[in-house]
């Protein structure tokens, strides 16, 4: 059985991997991928915060797909069962848990956490640029123009995958949103306008479902855009978002040629 690792071990490994102090870093992670971690998810969050320092910013996706229409294909708002199902969908609030993993929920529990207000696609952040990154996220194209991902791109942020693959790399959705013939989807969620609960429907870049994103990640690594290491039993990958997004955008333009 592998020896448990702790926060200091993870921090040292992240520094060796190349995370610079003062950086904005968006992290996708799987706690279970590390094996035994003394302190659990909080140890990973502490390691990340120490690695980037007080001038850095830690960002995690805190998506809430549970805030969505359980009958997205049904136009009916009269069927009693559909009405009951839709009424059971929770409204988004800043403390709503995310199914994105233990580390994002540990970030949400941090006293200095800032969280965006998008009902389905919020991000949370701690650090110097947290408010700047999380505030004013548009409902339309939540992962595209003027989103936290575009803000991080402009800041020259880093992308860190901890024990997960590029199918979890949300920056690839941002890259695809820049392609004219990108895939699309509709988001539908409940929202309060005054005292009335209404359903809002907005467009966004579509899901990949493992079709192109893992391939693009492998190609980017082959092109030298990604550094990787093992931390515990987790394969961890670090990349600068600007060259990575530019590469991914170019590849998606070629892969999605027939999508118009």
Automatic annotation (TrEMBL):
EC number: 2.3.1.-
Keywords from the named record: Acyltransferase, Antibiotic resistance, Transferase
InterPro entries listed in its UniProt record: Amioglycoside_AcTrfase, Antibiotic_NAT-like
Catalysed reactions listed for this entry: a 2-deoxystreptamine antibiotic + acetyl-CoA = an N(3)-acetyl-2-deoxystreptamine antibiotic + CoA + H(+)
Protein name per Swiss-Prot or TrEMBL: Aminoglycoside N(3)-acetyltransferase
Similarity comment: family membership: Belongs to the antibiotic N-acetyltransferase family.
First-level EC class: transferase
Pfam families membership: Antibiotic_NAT (PF02522)
């Amino acid at each position: 059985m592998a020896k448990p690792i702790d926060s200091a071990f993870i921090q040292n490994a992240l520094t060796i991997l190349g995370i610079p102090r003062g950086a904005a870093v968006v992290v996708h992670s799987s706690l279970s991928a590390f094996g035994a971690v003394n302190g659990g998810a909080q140890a990973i969050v502490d390691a990340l915060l120490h690695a980037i320092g007080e001038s850095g910013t830690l960002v995690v996706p805190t998506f809430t797909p549970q805030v969505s229409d359980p009958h997205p294909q049904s136009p009916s708002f009269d069927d009693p069962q559909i009405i009951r199902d839709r009424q059971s969908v929770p409204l988004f609030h800043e403390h709503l848990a995310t199914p994105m993993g233990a580390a994002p929920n540990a970030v949400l529990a941090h006293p200095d956490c800032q969280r965006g207000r998008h009902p389905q696609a919020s991000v949370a952040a701690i650090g110097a640029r947290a408010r700047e990154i999380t505030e004013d996220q548009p409902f339309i194209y939540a992962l595209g123009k003027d989103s936290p991902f575009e803000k991080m791109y402009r800041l020259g942020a880093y992308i860190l995958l901890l024990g997960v693959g590029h199918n979890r790399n949300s920056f690839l959705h941002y890259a695809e949103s820049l392609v004219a013939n990108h895939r699309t989807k509709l988001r539908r969620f409940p929202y309060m306008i005054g005292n009335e609960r209404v359903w809002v429907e907005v467009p966004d870049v579509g899901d990949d479902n493992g079709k192109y994103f893992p391939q693009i990640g492998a190609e980017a690594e082959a092109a030298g855009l990604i550094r990787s290491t093992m931390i515990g039993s987790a394969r961890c990958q670090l990349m600068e978002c600007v060259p990575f997004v530019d590469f991914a955008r170019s590849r998606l333009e070629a892969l999605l040629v027939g999508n118009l």
